[in-house]
């Protein structure tokens, strides 16, 4: 079944990324953007009969029911989507599929993550706090028998920094790639952020020398090539084609979608040269009936600069081994010849937890609707939004169009 033209995004809301959220809960963040997105779309909560959310810390179960109750919804379709940074993009095509199947007519897609300051634990002479000394464990932890625990962690392959540094090193070994070429991705996206008042680095210009002069966190990646964790929230309203005419905002039509999950542990990835990035992109382009050359805005997941380069190649915007030269020879700003992450990307807009991945979708929608403000991509008709979960493990590609 094709999803092309089945549904459109008609409303959005986004809580600007910030370092910390104080005493606000995840439910506070989600309900806030939910109300704003419905108002943006010009609909009442009674019209919302679909809900997509992600796992929420502190809620071991009944997540959709808890969120629906908190927001005041009565959905006929509800689902938890758990695809890491691809979750937001994955929500959109699932909403369209549910609408196409007659399960609902209007869906809310909600993402949000709080972030609080950590409190240091008091310690005396290196001893454990008295409250924890010699306290028996009533529920011993279950042994982790995943491939990651067995084959990765014992040898130091822990965390995303290491995984993406390995990818960057491998790519540079196979192809010609300079540190400056990777750095240009961050620099051009910072130019976009400087035109986006909501970006966490809005007022902080960046140069290639700045990037290369920042601390090397995990060779070869510098600090300014890596996202800074933040907090925030984002929501979209997806509705059926026959309801678009009543919307308060222009529709951003979902033309195509693709998804692929290849592994959890990077060491278990079947192929680092042809990952799920390309599988998802080709499926999305095929459903939409367009090719990479017709895309006017690429909204690509950018947890690390190397991720953008890998995606440009696998999604078909350039050939294998050409990504470094591609970014070097193109202006990636919103006013350039290849607009990329016009909101600043997560590197400069901010990686607001689950809402960080959703920001690539909200920006593609905002731009298709012609609401980009100073950073509006002129003459935009078709945009590609990409989500990435784990270490190139979970991929979702979406094609949006101004026309159906």
Task: Give a nutshell description of this structure.
The protein has about 400 residues and is of the alpha/beta class.
List the helices and strands and how they pair.
Elements: E1 7-18, H1 26-41, E2 50-53, H2 63-71, E3 77-80, H3 87-100, E4 106-113, H4 147-152, H5 160-174, H6 179-193, H7 208-213, E5 216-218, E6 221-222, E7 231-240, E8 252-261, H8 276-288, E9 297-299, H9 305-314, H10 323-329, H11 345-348, H12 354-368, E10 382-389, E11 394-401
Spatial extent as radius of gyration: 21 Å
Give the overall form.
globular
Regarding quaternary structure, how should these chains be classified? Answer: single chain
Largest sheet: 9 strands, mixed
Main sheet strand line-up: 3-2-4-7-1-8-11-10-9
Mean pLDDT level: 93
Distance between the termini: 16 Å
User: Strand pairing plus helix content: what structural class?
Assistant: alpha/beta
The CATH top-level class label: Alpha Beta
Sheet-strand content, in percent, reads 15-25%
Order of helices and strands: EHEHEHEHHHHEEEEHEHHHHEE
Number of strands: 11
**Corresponding CATH architecture:** 3-Layer(aba) Sandwich
Into how many domains do the coordinates divide?
1
The parts where pLDDT drops under 50 for at least 5 residues are: 121-137
Number of helices: 12
